[in-house]
Design brief:
Blueprint lengths: L3 H10 L1 H30 L6 H6 L8 H22 L2 H8 L3 H14 L2 H20 L5 H15 L3 H4 L9
Length: 171
């Protein structure tokens, strides 16, 4: 019988791979903090502006346009990496009993083989749908996660379907 407790048991049975996947995203976050601190150090001579300047001052007035653009580009590049690692990773870990590395490799492959406009639209949809989930005190996630999970099934066909797929060279 499908119920909430059974859905959580699936997550706990894949705990090790999910933690490793989360650890990879944490490392990416640490890289973002380090690189952001480095950029701010180069701009301000410290790891960042002081608290008062951040809260009440105009921090952007102290940065050049090139510094702002480079900061946004850095964040965008790291966001693209996180997105590419995440396209199908979690559903694959849960659905296919894949380890974290295999799931992230498959996710990168899906992201790189897909059309760029499709991935841009998919990323934007993920941001909007998850944003709706957060704005609706997480109640919206009840709708959002099944939609995202179904999209995984469309991106990564079942193994029996994969052997017959024309994309793989079989007809």
């Amino acid at each position: 019988m499908a119920n909430f407790d059974n859905s959580l048991k699936i997550l706990t049975s894949h705990r090790k791979s999910l933690f490793r996947y989360g650890g990879a995203l944490v490392l990416l976050s640490v890289a973002w903090v380090f690189l952001s601190s480095l950029m701010l150090f180069l701009a301000f001579g410290s790891a960042g502006p002081n608290y008062v300047e951040t809260m009440w001052g105009d921090v952007l007035a102290n940065l050049s346009e090139a510094q702002i653009v480079s900061y946004v580009l850095l964040g965008g590049i790291l966001a693209c990496v996180a997105f590419a690692l995440s396209v199908v990773s979690v559903p694959m870990i849960i659905d296919r009993d894949a380890d974290a590395v295999t799931a992230m490799r498959a996710s990168l492959r899906v992201a790189l083989e897909a059309d760029l406009p499709v991935m841009i639209v998919w990323g934007a949809l993920c941001v909007v749908l998850i944003g709706v989930g957060f704005v609706s005190p997480l109640v919206g996630m009840v709708v959002v996660f099944p939609i995202l999970g179904h999209a995984y099934l469309v991106c990564v066909p079942r193994p029996s379907v994969m052997s017959q797929s024309p994309r793989r060279g079989n007809t």
